[in-house]
Amino acid sequence: MLSRMADTAKTKPAPAKKSAKARPEVRFRMRIRNAGAVALGPGKVDLLEAVREYGSISAAARSLDMSYRRAWLLIDELNRSLKSPATHSEQGGQSGGGCTLTPVGETIIRLYRDVEEQAQRSCAKQIAELTRLIRR
Questions:
Q1: In CA terms, which of 3, 4, 35, 84 is 20 to 30 Å from 93?
Q2: DSSP assignment of 70-115
Q3: What span, in angstroms and rounded, lies between the C-alpha atoms of 22 and 17?
């Protein structure tokens, strides 16, 4: 289920179909707040994954149906909240610039997705009980 969640994070969700067999979707949305701001959360991790895949903030933003400005502000806010930046950007020019993840950025993705996976596994029984209460 988590790999499906990671895959669908990069695309717009399909409209919900009314079906007797539709299963509720369970998603963990961990956020780390610092000084009132979200230093790290699901949107920033999704954006880091898109930057890793596409090699630029603008392409990552397009893949997430987000404006370049919004993506740039999220990356900037994330980098300012960390001891070391998660991304490294090259200025545009003949080669067009780009953005890559630093080892810190790679570590953030790995740890964040590990937490989601462990939470899903350790709460599987409670999740199953809760989803049985949902009308389908």
A1: 84
A2: HHHHHHHHHHHHSSS-SEEEE--STT--EEEE-HHHHHHHHHHHHH
A3: 8
Contact at 8 Å (CB) between 39 and 45? no
**pLDDT score of 19 more than 70:** no
Q: Is 78 left (phi over 0), alpha (psi -120 to 50) or beta?
A: alpha
Q: Which residue has the higher pLDDT, 59 or 20?
A: 59
Q: Say whether 28 sits in a helix, a strand or coil.
A: coil
Q: Whose CA is closest to 61, among 5, 10, 107? A: 10
pTM assigned to the model: 0.77
d(CA 13, CA 8) in angstroms, rounded, equals 7
Compute the distance between CA of residue 4 and CA of residue 130 in angstroms, rounded to an integer. 20
Cα distance between residue 25 and residue 20, in whole Å:
15
